[in-house]
Design brief:
This protein is 0% helix and 42% strand. By secondary structure, the protein is an all-beta fold. The chain starts with a strand and ends in a 15-residue tail after the last strand.
Length: 295
């Protein structure tokens, strides 16, 4: 990209290069990057992929960056740091801070973003040299990301000067503003509870299990509107509910389960209640002349 001249083990990286590696062995490979364009001083995030020559089941991807001395000012992306998350709580604002620049050697600074897995970079915002703060703390921009879809993103700062372009290291993160959604049908899936059946529900993403408590769950016997006390378990994307009363005795009765205040790992909470009903089936062994005896 941008005219980078890359050699791997002395060979031009224009086609796959083969290496023989003994079982449990290792091979050191020297990768060199040279500038191929007079106005480019940074080659950030060059990606290399290693795979086996058999069925491709062994695969490893690595990235390197090459930064060359430039007459342009250097630039550093301070915020967000790698592993950043933007959720509902941030109200579509992602603070971006950058510093290390010298205004006299800067024409403009641009934030660029890239969807995870994509190859192209897109402009997020641009600030001219006159819009930059002349401070060691740099410049802070509250970037509105309402137009971006949820998902993984890479961010970098690109500094433009009269002689070329310098890029910062990337910071990868996630935009997740979506609340958990029910996955499939809650248990019991046949809408009939028999002794030994599970009462549980799954969501489409991992939950904040530490925030799920019995107070967030209501199990109600509909015939008398009585609430039934429960214990609650949560693991990854699943919530399991265990009544402290033997509800199998309520044959023919309808039970309603309601869940409130369910959030994902990033704090995106549901504002609506998830609820479902089921009927308690007959699990009491039959007696009398028509009962079946196995023995």
């Amino acid at each position: 990209p941008n005219g980078a001249v890359v050699t791997i083990g002395g060979s031009q990286a224009a086609a796959p290069i083969s290496y023989s590696i003994d079982y449990l062995g290792e091979v050191n490979v020297l990768v060199k990057v040279k500038r191929g364009a007079s106005n480019i001083f940074s080659y950030e995030g060059l990606q290399f992929r290693l795979t086996d020559a058999c069925d491709g089941s062994i695969e490893k991807t690595a990235r390197i960056s090459a930064f060359f001395t430039a007459t342009c000012s250097p630039i550093k992306l301070v915020l967000p740091e790698g592993g950043w998350v933007n959720s509902q709580a941030e109200n579509n604002i992602l603070p971006v801070q950058f510093n290390g620049y010298t205004i006299a050697n800067t024409t403009s600074v641009t934030l660029e973003y890239q969807r995870t897995g994509a190859s192209n970079w897109v402009t997020g915002f641009t600030r001219t040299a006159t819009e930059l703060n002349n401070s060691v703390n740099g410049t802070l921009v509250n970037w509105n990301i309402a137009a971006l879809n949820d998902g993984g993103y890479n961010l970098r700062i690109s500094l433009n000067c009269a002689s070329g372009v310098v890029n910062s290291e990337r910071a990868s993160g996630i935009i997740d503003r979506s609340s958990p959604i029910l996955l499939g049908k809650p248990e019991p899936t046949d809408d009939e509870f028999l002794r030994g059946d599970a009462i549980s529900v799954q969501y489409n993403e991992a939950l904040d299990c530490g925030g799920v408590t019995p107070s967030d769950v209501q199990v109600r016997r509909m015939s008398n509107n009585q609430l039934i006390e429960v214990n609650v378990g949560c693991f990854q994307n699943k919530i399991a509910i265990v009544p402290l009363t033997d509800i199998s005795l309520f044959v023919g009765d309808s039970i309603r389960v309601s869940l409130n205040n369910i959030s994902d790992l990033y704090g995106n909470g549901k504002t609506t209640t998830d609820s479902w009903r089921f009927i308690v089936g007959n699990t009491i062994p039959a007696t009398g002349p028509r009962a079946l005896i196995v023995g």
